[in-house]
Amino acid sequence: MSIKTEAGSHAAQPAHPSNTSECDLTAIIDLVDDLCGVYLDESKGYLIESRLGPIARRFECRDYGELVNRALAIGGESVRSEIVDAITTHETLFFRDESPFRAMRFKVLPDLIQHIEDTGRARQIRVWSAACSTGQEVYSIAMVLHEIAQDLPGWDLQVFGTDISPASVATAERGWYSNLEVGRGLDAMNKSNYFSQEASGWQVAPELQRRAKFAVRNLLKPFPETNQFDIVFCRNVAIYFKPNQRADMFHRMVDTMTPGGWLFVGSAERLSDLGPAFTPQSHCDCTVYRPK
Ligand SMILES: C[S@@+](CC[C@H](N)C(=O)[O-])C[C@H]1O[C@@H](n2cnc3c(N)ncnc32)[C@H](O)[C@@H]1O
Predict the structure, then answer these.
(1) What's the number of domains the chain is made of?
(2) Residue 5 lies in a domain
(3) Does one domain contain both 79 and 127?
(4) Which of 39, 83, 95, 163 to mutate to test the pocket of ligand 1 (most atoms within 8 A of CB)?
(5) What residue's CA is closest to ligand 1, atom 13?
């Protein structure tokens, strides 16, 4: 597949699949699949051109075959991470879908706290926001944790946010959001309690940042944790995976959870096809799973 210039006047052919070298197209599709599990079938030529074309031009590649070679070469990390950033969808907002946060606040956390007290386990709760994008999900969770922490002296409540996109993780770590971003899902009370105006945007309060840790992580690779997370949010990411990758990821995710842990998925996602361990429960208008 050849690359169009900004002016569209490059001698190369337009990057539509019908004008594309079969080999280049397959190579870029395979690379994206390998890097992040997003499978761009051949009908997605427009997506390849609109998202990867600018990267190929910036790295001065003549065609997508060359971009693949650059990405796979030694030192190709920055090319790979730009490709992942460009291909993945980072749409997110504070308190997305609302009901998971209500269920966590009014059902899951009270049950967990009781369970931990009953079993004499260390007074700590670990939440994982897997595929956290730019961090709005993590800080929404941190707000809920911070609120209940006021009545739980001596407890350690933490949220861990991970995403495959290094740029998204960097934004999440920084914790600075534009007016537009804080206007999506954040009510006036949370905004005034947990954000301060800074450089024409809003900075998350240090008390929330102290509860949040972040890392770059590919959900399609093995997870280092076992028996660690009491609550996992894995929302609006598995929809991009192939069915076998999705099933494998959720089964591996179970091992990262503590027994009786709680799993939240996106509002349009269902896990019943993954077997009896993934029987849905409903709390506060939200579907939740307890697969372990
Ligand atoms: C649509 S956002 C969802 C963000 C948040 N969970 C929410 O529901 O608002 C999807 C995120 O999944 C990330 N992602 C895509 N493939 C991934 C993979 N293989 N491993 C980890 N994260 C991935 C993307 O970088 C993106 O930030």
Answers:
(1) 2
(2) no
(3) no
(4) 163
(5) 131
CATH code, 59: 1.10.155
Decide whether any atom of ligand 1 lies within 6 Å of the 3 Cβ: no
Tell the residue nearest (CA) to atom 9 of ligand 1.
92
To test ligand 1's pocket by mutation, which of 82, 96, 133 has the most ligand atoms within 8 angstroms of CB?
133
Which residue, 52, 87, 122, sits at the end of a domain?
87
Residue nearest to atom 5 of ligand 1 (CA): 132
- Measure the CA dihedral 94/98/101/102, to 10°: 150
Cα 48 to middle of ligand 1, angstroms: 18
The ligand 1 atom at the shortest distance from the C-alpha of residue 165 is 25
Q: Are 195 and 202 in contact (CB under 8 A)?
A: yes
Find the domain containing 28 and state its range.
17-87
CATH code of the domain in which 227 resides: 3.40.50.150
2 lies in some domain: no
Alpha helices in 48-107 (DSSP H): 53-58, 64-72, 77-87, 99-103
CA–CA distance, 144 with 156 (Å, rounded to integer): 13
Tell me how far the alpha carbon of residue 10 lies from the centroid of ligand 1, in angstroms.
Answer: 34
Contact call for residues 132 and 138 (beta carbons, < 8 A): yes
Tell me the pLDDT tens digit for each residue of 141-160. Answer: 999 999 999 999 999 999 99
Whether 4 maps to a domain, the answer reads: no
Residue-wise pLDDT tens digits, 225-259? 999 999 999 999 999 898 999 999 999 999 999 99
181 lines ligand 1 (CB under 6 A): no
Highest mean pLDDT among 9-13, 105-109, 197-201 belongs to: 105-109
| Inter-residue contact 257 to 291 (CB < 8 Å) | yes
* Residue where a domain terminates, one of 87, 115, 148: 87
What does the block give as tokens for 63?
Answer: 């065609």
- Tell me: do 161 and 216 sit in the same domain: yes
